[in-house]
Amino acid sequence: MSQHAMGYLRVERAGPLAMLQDAGRFGTRRLGVTQGGPADLHAFAWANRLLGNAWDAAALEVSLGGLVLVAERTTRLALCGADLQASVEGEAIAPWRVVTLREGQRLSFATPVSGLRAYLAVPGGFAGEPVLGSLACVAREGLGGHAGDGRALAVGDKLDFGPDTGAPEATVPEAARLDYRRPARLALIPGAQVADFTGESLYRAFNAAWRVDARADRMGVRLRGPALNCRLPGLISEGIALGAVQVPPDGQPIALLNDRQTIGGYPRLGTLTPLACARLAQCAPGQEVQLVATPLGRAQARHRRFLEAMGAG
């Protein structure tokens, strides 16, 4: 595909973790292959929308900053999600907008100010060869990404993309921009083994202020707070969905994200909605979150409205 691309970005400094993600790899969990995809679906989809891309086009997920890209041709880019102190040739640029990067200019990301992950979209999406139907990068499984082998960007890598056909929007509406520094309210659909937790534990689960543990990555996020107790002595491993909230023997919940394992045997309090997972993925260690019990129908309706607004309906 690269011989047909109209431009590319070159990696001058790689940073700790930057990788290509499309909407995810589906239909493969029966093979033990997880979905990957953007940890923050909300910011990812808005970045593509700003450039008029397909909602699921491959974009660059930049985690924690440290990345420097050089434009080999002038192009427009869309930047959404975390504020990682992005700048073009030293001039600060805010997220949630379209910016122009001229030939030879450097786009740099420093350290997080608000949120952890920024999403950079290019016209038409980044090019690459799909692996099992997707470009989604999953490092643990060595699948996807810009080179197809599941690795993050390295110095000297080149990212191809198509011609700029014009962006229909310049910025994301104010109401859709999230302040990641505020406490996060996470919609959770009770289910699975929720009835097997003690009444006191259920009260604590939905009324306590939880804190994000330092043990957090694209596989899952541990929450610190009151210990939750489940009456079940043990479980046979079963399939695990995005957002599943497992409770291991120490009673501290683990919310499973995009690069999670495909099966698990801990009791589950329920499942975070996709947009709740997106919000959690932007929470720094120590940040406060609250679990909010949400009916399935309401969660489905909200997600359907989001996908329709992004052009996926």
Provide an overview of this structure.
With 313 residues, the chain is an alpha+beta fold. The protein has four helices and 20 strands. The two termini are 28 Å apart. Strands 12-19-16-17-14-13-20 form a seven-stranded mixed beta barrel. Residues 1-5 have low confidence and may be disordered. A hairpin with a 2-residue loop joins strand 6 (87-88) and strand 7 (91-92). It has two domains: 2-176, no CATH class; 184-309, Cyclophilin-like (Cyclophilin, Beta Barrel), CATH 2.40.100.10.
How is the secondary structure organized here?
Blueprint: E1 7-13, E2 17-21, H1 41-50, E3 59-63, E4 68-71, E5 75-83, E6 87-88, E7 91-92, E8 97-101, E9 106-108, E10 114-121, E11 158-161, E12 184-190, H2 199-207, E13 210-216, E14 220-224, E15 238-239, E16 244-246, E17 254-256, E18 263-264, E19 268-272, H3 274-280, E20 288-293, H4 296-309
